Amino acid sequence: DAGITQSPRHKVTETGTPVTLRCHQTENHRYMYWYRQDPGHGLRLIHYSYGVKDTDKGEVSDGYSVSRSKTEDFLLTLESATSSQTSVYFCAIRAFSGQSTDTQYFGPGTRLTVL
Amino acid sequence: DAKTTQPPSMDCAEGRAANLPCNHSTISGNEYVYWYRQIHSQGPQYIIHGLKNNETNEMASLIITEDRKSSTLILPHATLRDTAVYYCIVRVGYSGGGADGLTFGKGTHLIIQP
What we know:
- The complex is a heterodimer of chains A (115) and B (114).
- In chain A, a hairpin with a 2-residue loop joins β5 and β6 (54-57).
- Chain A contains no helices and eleven strands.
- The radius of gyration of chain A is 14 Å and the shape is globular.
- The mean pLDDT of chain A is 93.
- Chain A is an all-beta fold and 115 residues long.
- Chain B has no helices and nine strands.
- The A-B interface holds A 33, 35, 42-45, 48, 50, 56, 58-59, 90, 92, 94, 96, 99-109 and B 32, 34, 41-46, 49, 51, 93-94, 97, 99-106.
């Protein structure tokens, strides 16, 4: 499982409230990712990080912000949650194997419901 | 990244080998074939990847045709816990940076029958 944990695992919140999801890794990987997964849309990249305080947007970044103040933690914040952000959120790390390949390993996910 | 085609669903008897096909006829020379699976309500799980040689690890074997236009993931002795959606992805190896987010298609829903 590449030492990835996510918290909380389940959360129910109300529209307009801020929400922060946490991804924690224990293996000192430089790259970390946040995805959301929805029926009919598959896996979509929200934001990613390529080092401490180095982050960039993915495919569906609107309404989300991220922070990475230390290598092991990557936080995803919904500034003002909306019902369209109800989803399952996965964190991933990128591990390099050999000279030219890399693999992403995923956390267990956080199921977020916005009422 | 090249597009892949997989059957939407397959059945396999418990204890038998499960052979999951994937077509990737537009694969480029520097693209690898990756396999992931997702068991219901869990995070995607990496299984195996390869470039052109057959690969085997503790979970599965990957057979890539000589022309690299298709591949087969083999689970040698399927168990009920192997019931999952299996995704075949074709992507360039380490590119040196960038988002490099993964894109999963619809995959194959493999159902292991007791």
